[in-house]
């Protein structure tokens, strides 16, 4: 049976490293931790848990640090986690199943928790985390696995709360800018820089990089749907509605099974029509159709996006729309549909009525 090392690079993670290691240690054969300059108790906590600990002098390259950490693993395969991530359950069997199915890079579902407009959300991305030792990374930040091996989706789910009430954009933006100096036409890094500016609510700057990425992106890339939706979202936030509508018209067929697209379209139309003095019933029906389409599609299990875009989020917005139109019964129905998923704003809205 092949062995597996859990590999982490860390810095000042004393509040989260124990949770990370405890969640994964029964799923692997070895835990390797590389510290890049902690000034807190991160190393002490990790060592007390029996890990193999190493130090690495930080050089502003996550790829270099990852590759050094991988070189210290003694197992046949490695699984990559960050200290602010953790396994939902024991995945030893799922890891072995992936390994036994042949040489392939394992794609893992990562659920990110974040706050937006005072509301908690979860966003799903798929990340390459499980691979044979010897596989390497490239990139100063948002580093990418370099391998000719095929990619296969696993049944492993990782939870991540590192962006909850934490602003990492000030650290990320300079590193991404350096990466883009070296690779000015790399759509992935342009996309990531757009996301970094979006997290700072600098939508005009985000649009600049999203537009460049959008012009270069290959539609087969797994992040392509998310890029398009985030670009439309930022155009809406910066009141560039006509430009956003043109992209929506162009991409509707490509994203016909993506609830995030229709939700973002509905939000853009709401903002657009609310800025016009002569909106009418037809405008409201167009918005309504977007949120109903989200519910028709339902939640997606294969594309990156925000949890709830195919269920409680459009239901909540339909409740708001019907309440605005004075349709109490319809509003109550959709508030209840949304609240059934535990969405607190819908519960409050329904009870307040």
From TrEMBL:
GO terms for molecular function: transferase activity. Keywords: Transferase. Residues 5-124 form the Glycosyltransferase 2-like domain. Pfam families: Glycos_transf_2. InterPro entries: Glyco_trans_2-like, Nucleotide-diphossugar_trans, TPR-like_helical_dom_sf. This is Glycosyltransferase family 2 protein.
């Amino acid at each position: 049976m092949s062995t597996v090392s859990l590999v982490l690079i860390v810095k000042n993670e004393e509040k989260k490293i124990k949770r990370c290691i405890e969640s994964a240690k029964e799923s692997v054969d070895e835990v390797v931790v590389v510290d890049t300059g902690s000034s807190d108790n991160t190393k002490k906590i990790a060592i007390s848990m029996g890990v193999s600990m190493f130090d690495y002098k930080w050089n502003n390259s996550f790829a270099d640090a990852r590759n050094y950490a991988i070189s210290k693993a003694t197992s046949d395969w490695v699984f990559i986690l960050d200290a602010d991530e953790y396994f939902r359950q024991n995945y030893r069997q799922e890891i072995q199943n992936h390994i036994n199915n042949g040489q392939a890079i394992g794609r893992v579902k990562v659920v990110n928790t974040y706050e937006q407009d005072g509301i908690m959300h979860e966003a799903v991305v798929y990340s390459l985390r499980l691979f044979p030792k010897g596989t390497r990374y490239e990139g100063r930040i948002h580093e990418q696995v370099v391998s000719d091996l095929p990619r296969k989706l696993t049944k492993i789910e990782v939870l991540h709360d590192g962006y909850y009430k934490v602003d990492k954009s000030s650290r990320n933006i300079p590193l991404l800018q350096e990466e883009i100096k070296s690779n000015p036409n790399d759509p992935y890094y342009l996309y990531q820089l757009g996301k970094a500016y979006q997290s700072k609510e600098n939508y005009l700057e985000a649009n600049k990089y999203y537009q460049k990425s959008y012009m270069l992106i290959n539609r087969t890339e797994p992040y392509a749907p998310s890029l398009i939706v985030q670009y439309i979202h930022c155009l809406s936030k910066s009141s560039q509605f006509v430009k956003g509508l043109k992209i929506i018209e162009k991409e509707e067929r490509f994203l016909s099974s993506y609830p995030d697209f229709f939700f973002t379209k509905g939000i853009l139309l709401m903002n657009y029509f609310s800025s016009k003095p002569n909106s009418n019933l037809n405008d409201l029906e167009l918005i309504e159709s977007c949120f109903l389409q989200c519910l028709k599609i339902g939640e997606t299990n294969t594309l990156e996006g925000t949890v709830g875009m195919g269920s409680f989020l459009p239901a909540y917005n339909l409740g708001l729309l019907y309440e605005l139109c004075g349709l109490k019964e319809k509003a109550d129905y959709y508030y209840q549909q949304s609240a059934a998923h535990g969405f607190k704003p819908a519960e409050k809205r329904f009870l307040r009525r």
